[in-house]
Design a protein that fits this description.
6 helices; alpha/beta; single chain
Length: 171
């Protein structure tokens, strides 16, 4: 029974996840932007990844706020299904999220320095390094402009998406 009690801690060390990252929304950074992560307490090596793409936000808002707000509805699901949830913050500076320009911004997979899809691939690479068993495939949810992103992403990278849900992809 002592081994069973140590199992969650053992899993955390084998996939290099900090204890402070488990059970809360954490802000993280990759080369081309910020993303938010929710790591369920029930995480293990077979846990799947769910990417949530926020919709556009008002000019008075921020991508970080839009991205982190996504977790309100998804934390309980993530916990019960052992799913790691990440939400890229498609900001105006890099991905023209709510401003005109950049050929439709992230909803068209476009970015000012790198494509929005490449930004997502940077995020996915974090989990590929953490868990050698992770094959780079994930579930994808997009709402509003995030739904437009998800739709275009699936067309360009169908081999990376296990399943998708797209909500209100109008603009």
């Amino acid at each position: 029974t002592h081994l069973l009690a140590l199992l969650p801690a053992l899993l955390l060390t084998t996939i290099a996840i900090g204890q402070d990252e488990v059970g809360s929304v954490v802000r993280k950074q990759v080369a081309h932007g910020v993303f938010f992560q929710f790591m369920p307490r029930s995480v293990n090596r077979s846990s799947k990844l769910l990417v949530i793409c926020h919709g556009s936000f008002p000019s008075s808002g921020s991508a970080a706020s839009a991205s982190s707000t996504c977790f309100i509805d998804w934390k309980r699901f993530a916990q019960s299904e052992r799913v790691i949830v990440v939400a890229p913050a498609f900001d105006n500076k890099n991905y023209a999220a709510s401003s005109a320009g950049a050929l439709g911004g992230y909803r068209s997979l476009v970015g000012r320095q790198v494509g929005a899809n490449e930004f997502l691939h940077e995020i996915i690479a974090v989990y590929e390094k953490l868990n050698p068993q992770f094959d780079g495939r994930f579930f994808l949810f997009g709402d509003g402009a995030g739904g437009q992103f998800a739709n275009r992403y699936i067309v360009r990278h169908p081999e990376r998406v296990i399943g998708a849900l797209i909500s209100s992809p109008a603009w």
